[in-house]
Amino acid sequence: MITNHQKIEFGEVTLIEKVSIKPPFRLSFNFPDEACFIYFDKGSTQIKAPYEQKEVHSKEAVLLRCGTYFSELLPGLNEESYTILVFHLPKKVIREIYQEHFPVSAQAEQESFIRKVDPSSVLEEFINGIQSYFHNRSMLSDELLKLKIQELILLLQKTGNTTSLRKLFNETFSPVEVNLKQVVHSHIFTDCTVSDLAELCNMSLSTFNRQFRKVFDDSPSNYLKNKRLDKAKELLLHSSFSIGEIAFKTCFYDAAHLSNSFKDKFGCSPSDYRKNSNE
Questions:
Q1: Which of 32, 82, 144, 277 would suit a FRET pair with 51, their CA atoms being 20 to 30 Å apart?
Q2: In whole angstroms, what is the distance from residue 270 CA to residue 262 CA?
Q3: Per-residue pLDDT at 254
């Protein structure tokens, strides 16, 4: 549940948002034409992108390139709420500020969607400055916000070891054509559901199911289950993990869920399979 939501506008565009959230809550982002810088002032989570997922903790930030993302905000042992700052970077605004420095490639050179920005005194000072404007809105102007965008871009250059503006903009704004097969293979052993995979592919569930069958000649749920069971079988042979640990690593709810599914496919329980294989 969102408990507080404040915005700072740049012309007709929402540039900065400060959001307080009481978990559980699902954050979904679809940025077809903008990048986004997100700072987690309070709370930790895992952000999932088409080809990757990254852990983010309090006082850390991420730069998300144009694309689709989601994150499940869950109650933590020490924190009962989340506070995040979202800094939108629309292409048209960046182009207005940087003009001839902005052109980006028609296709991305690399396909990473999430760039982690580790905690630093520079980042903390920048965030503190942004936070102060929510309490002193009379100080805000479009010209000041342009300067804040430039300050953020400079910060991203320095923290990312990127000396060239053009390189930074290419890494952030150049489009990545999402490949369904690559999305699926990137998340087979994560807790992504079929609906989550469809979202990361920016497809409706019905379209995703139809396209999935064309690619894999199987239904998504059956394909994922079989791949996870094959991985569980491999771990039973080549690791000392317990059945419960293997269930966790292969995205089954618990040991009983894994055991029932394993027996349905292979005709014996995981423990019996391991025992018989070691004899």
A1: 82
A2: 7
A3: 95
- Read off the tokens for 141: 């102007």
Domain with 271 in it: what CATH number? Answer: 1.10.10.60
Q: Write the DSSP symbol of residue 22.
A: P
The H-assigned helical ranges of the chain are: 91-98, 121-133, 142-159, 165-173, 180-187, 194-200, 205-216, 220-238, 243-249, 255-266, 270-278
What range defines the domain where residue 8 resides?
2-173
- Which amino acid is present at 49? A
Q: pLDDT tens digit string along 74-128?
A: 887 666 899 999 999 998 899 888 887 665 555 555 568 999 988 889 999 999 9
Same domain, 153 and 240: no
pTM, entire model: 0.89
Say yes or no: 188 and 244 in one domain. Answer: yes
Sheet containing 34-42: which strands, arranged edge to edge?
Answer: 2-10, 13-21, 82-90, 34-42, 60-64, 114-117
